Every structure is written in structure tokens, then in C-alpha cells.
Amino acid sequence: MRAYFKIFSIVVAMLVGASWAWAQDYDLIIKNGHMIDPKNGIDGSMDIAVKDGVIARVASKINATAKIEVDAKGRYVTPGILDIHTHNFHGNLGTYLANGFASVQPDGFTFKAGVTTVVDVGSSGWRNFEQFKQQTIDKSKTRVLAFLNIVGTGMKGGAWEQDMSDMDAKLTAATAKRFPGLVVGVKVAHYSGPEWDPVERGVEAGTLADIPVMIDFGGVEPELSLEELLMEKLRPGDIFTHTFGHVRGRIPIVNDQGKLEPYVKQAQERGIIFDVGHGGGSFRFDQAVPAMEEGFRPNTISTDLHTGSMNGGMKDQSNVMSKFLNLGMNLQQVIEASTWKSAQVIKRTDLGHLSEGAVADIAVFSVEEGDFGFIDVQRKRMNGNKKLSCELTVREGAVVYDLNGISSPLWNE
Question: What are the residues facing 274 on neighbouring strands?
Fold first, then answer.
């Protein structure tokens, strides 16, 4: 008799549990947080509910039940972060960033910084993009998009990236058209000759495929004209990355007198996108501080993530965002430059916002106050008093990172 009663109790418990699960209004609710959603002009206390991987409701108060409820009081709720300058074509059969060890697999470096989408910029070209897709894009939980290198073999380094015979605008554009929405741009980088041909071929490919071009410029002495690049060679919507770098063979945006070159603001006004692209060698405070003091700020904030940057001054996306929070941008500007603006730049306006019906990519941050130090690529330190820390990351409705367990019940409840 006891055995029958035990079985009956188990069945009842299972039915009650199933009914409770079925009765939940949503899969996830994040309550009491301060939402920053630049696209929708939201900057205040809001709740957000998720169902079946999409944002089901955004309101000042959501009185409903969910399988997972998160109290975000004292924290900031934002769209999932887009890092539009990374290198993720990791492998052991290639060289440098093209199927090589210098690129990193994204999932280990994204979610902990609130990043849900990365854009690999130029690690692959038209010759090896499909390998990159099969190897990384199709296997990552992080959404991975790509800019195709104008060099067919991508960023193999050395002589490969100097080979103009492999810079084919038509084949690059044709490959981009085969993967619309996945290939979102063209990359021109690392060419150290005195010719404009790589830039011109990159722009030609971008025009044929109706996608932006990102330029990693410099490497030749005497330097090619930065003003000509920004004011004549690039189109509105094209991207100048490593904005605050000062490297051999490239004219910096802040001159030897510590002043911002006047054509830089003019170029931004004509629609050129200035991207941070911090990297391991392309962000200096002696460029960023004077530029910011003159009222110039980047359009987009990104990392240039690879093995040469992640353990140096760059670290991760939230650390780069924190630098600009201490350089004079307010939190709303930092979030916009890391979400909605980035989504617009790569023409993926389905991303970077918290609209009802949008994919549920969400980040929750805390802003810590204290004494912090931030390092540039020269290992020079800037002191700051604010630092962003990612508390929770949601990708397509699923919690993929939870720093302090705010999405989990206590073990003894």
C-alpha cells in the first residue's frame, strides 16, 4: 500500500510541476532595472519580458510570472552589446588571424562582457570564408558576422596581405551577396605600399555588394594622406577603425601640437564612421584625451579582440566601454556606441535594441564606483572612478552568463 501511495504522490507532484511550468506567462522577466535603449529613447526604470527567444513585452511594470525572474534593481538593462571589430577565425592550420592561433573562439570572450554579437573583420576573404563559416560561425553560441578581407586569403600576415593580385573586388562582392546579412562589410588592412589600389578595390567591392568598408590604414612612409582617405576615397557610412592609434606609416588624428586635425570632424560630419578598434597597438591616451576634450567622440566602440590585445590594455568590450565612460562620454552615449549605432553601421537594424518582437539579446550591467586604472597600448595608465561590470547576458532568450547568480534561486529554497 505504501508503494502505491508513493507512486501516486510522485505522479501528482509531476503533474503539479508541469502545470506550474505551463502556467508561466513568460520564460524570463527582468524587473526593476534602469533600461537604456537608445533606439526607442528609453532611459529609465522598465521591466522586460521574454518568450520563445524574443522580447514579448517592455513596460514600466509587468505583473506576471516567468520561469526565471531577475531583480535588476540598481543595475542597467541594455541591448546585447555588438562588438564590430574582432578576430575569430581560430584554427591550427593557418597563419596569423586566418585559421590561426592569434584569432580567438568567440564564446569564451563575449558573454562575460555583455556581448551577444561580434563582427570578425577581415580574418577571412572570399577564398576561405566558407571554412570560417563552418568552423566558427555555425558552431558558436555568440552571433558571429563578418567583413570579408579584400585579400582573398584573408589576414594571413606578411607577404599574403601585400599581394594585390589577390585583391579582387568582384569576387569579394559576389561572396558577400551569397551570404547577405552574414557578410556585412569589406575590410582593407595591413597593406604597406604607396598605392591607393587596395582602398579603391575595397570601396568597389562595398559598392557592388551595398555594404560598408572598414579601413585599417597605414604602413608606408611618407604616409598617404589621411585627409584624402577620409574626405575623398571613403563613402559616407564607411568605417575608419583604430581611430585613436598612433602607428608608423599613418598620420594620427591628433597632431604633434596636441590638436585634432580639422578634417577629422568634417569627415565625421560627412558620414565617415570612426570606430575605436582598440587592439594591442592602436589606442593611445595621448590621442583619445585631446580628441575628446575638443568634443570629438567615436561613433562606435569596439575591441579588435585577438590574442595580442585581450591580455593587454584592451582586456574586453566592457573595459573599453569603461574607458570612454571615464573619458567624458555619458553612459547613454557609451551604450549607444556599443549597440544601436553599431547595428546601424553594419545594416543589421534587427539588432541592438529592446523593441517588442526583437530577438532577446540583453545585457545587464552594474556601474562600480571606486579607484580604477586603465591602460593604453603604451602601457600608460589613466585613473578613473567608474567601471562597467557585466552581471547577466541573455542570448536569444537564454541566460548564457550570470556573474552573481541573479537569475538563479537560492540553493536552500
Answer: 240
User: Grid coordinates in use for 81?
Assistant: 552589446
Q: Residue 308 CB: number of other CB atoms within 10 A?
A: 16
Confidence class for position 5, pLDDT limits 50, 70, 90: very low
CB 53 within 8 A of CB 397: yes
List the domains of the chain with CATH numbers: 80-345 (3.20.20.140)
Inform me whether the pLDDT recorded for 16 exceeds 90: no
Smallest CA-to-CA distance from 174 within 229, 236, 130 is with 130
Model confidence over 227-266: pLDDT tens digits? 999 999 999 999 999 999 999 999 999 999 999 999 999 9
pLDDT (tens digit per residue) in 302-322: 999 999 999 999 999 999 999
Q: Which helix (H) or strand (E) holds 374?
A: strand 362-375
Q: Say how far apart CA 169 and CA 209 lie, in whole Å.
A: 10
Q: In what order do the strands lie in the sheet containing 239-240?
A: 81-86, 115-125, 143-149, 183-189, 213-216, 239-240, 273-274
The whole-angstrom separation of Cα 75 and Cα 271 is 34
- d(Cα 367, Cα 386) in Å, to the nearest integer? 6
Contact 352, 344 (CB under 8 A): yes
* The length of the chain, given as a count of residues: 413
Can you read off the three cell numbers belonging to residue 171?
Answer: 569576387
Other C-beta atoms closer than 10 Å to the C-beta of 379 total 8
Q: HSE (CB half, 13 Å, CA atoms) of 138?
A: 8
Cβ proximity of 83 and 345 under 8 Å? no
> With a threshold of 0.90, does the pTM exceed it?
yes
Amino acid at 180: P
DSSP structure class, residue 223: P
